[in-house]
Amino acid sequence: MPERNTDAPAEREIVTGDEQFSEKMPRRYQRRRPRQVVPDYVDWKDVEFLRQFIPERGKIMPRRISGISAKDQRRVATAIKRARSMALLPFVWD
Amino acid sequence: MADRTYEVMYIIDPDTPEDRVTKLNEAVGSLIEKEGGKIVRMDDGGRRQLAYPIQKKTEGHYVLYEFDGSGREIAELERRMRVNDMIIRYITVRVDEDRKKADKMKAKRDNRTARRARFRQTEDASPEAAA
User: Fold this and answer.
1) What does each C-alpha distance from A45 to A2, A72, A87, B2 come to in angstroms?
2) How do residues B23-59 score in pLDDT, each as one tens digit?
3) Cβ of B60 under 8 Å from any chain A Cβ?
4) Which residues of chain B are within 8 Å of residue A87 when distances are taken between CB atoms?
5) Looking at CA atoms only, how far is residue B130 from chain A in angstroms?
6) Residue B8: in which H helix or E strand, if any?
7) B4-94: CATH topology
8) Alpha carbons within 13 A on the beta-carbon side of B92
9) Within an 8 Å CB–CB cutoff, is residue B47 touching chain A?
10) pLDDT tens-place string over residues A37-70
11) In the CATH scheme, what is the homologous superfamily, with its name and number, of domain A29-85?
12) B91 CB near a chain A CB, below 8 Å?
């Protein structure tokens, strides 16, 4: 019960605070980054290039954030996986 | 049918002495040649920090070979590398297809820019012709 009480006013606050954007409120992630330049040949040994698609945690950046084309994303992803298996890139950053 | 290009990279245990490393690299090179491959490039990357520990080692000696061949060399090469204790990791990647694709894409783009440039030229030239 106390939980519902705390939730309700917060919701109302959002609606009254900004009526136009209240419906769109749960926007979880940022807009796409400006288009990245992906070379025609993605070299899996080019660690410096691949690093820009790996945020701190070490995961491969999803396409909605990296903003590159599906084809390029696929090539970058395989390159990252190859580099990982050769210990050029980490599987996880702690 | 030697129309394929492969990259072979392997990591050597950092504790192996230098002379054995060079001997190993020579052995790999001669094996590739013996199996019918043609070495294009050999790159000794030297010691490098590993991104994560492998067999409790934090460093490794990276070596890269690039060769043209039929693809039948790989089986024997990988079998030898698997058995060898000095090699802690290896990978073989076929690169010719992707490179060919990249060349095609580049040619396409160059073509397009050339055509566009030509179009612009005629556009610039036409008013002069009218005048």
Assistant:
1) 56, 16, 11, 24
2) 999 999 999 999 888 999 999 988 999 999 999 999 9
3) yes
4) 11, 50-52, 54, 60, 89
5) 42
6) strand B4-12
7) Alpha-Beta Plaits (3.30.70)
8) 18
9) no
10) 788 888 999 888 998 889 888 899 888 888 888 8
11) Ribosomal protein S18 (4.10.640.10)
12) yes
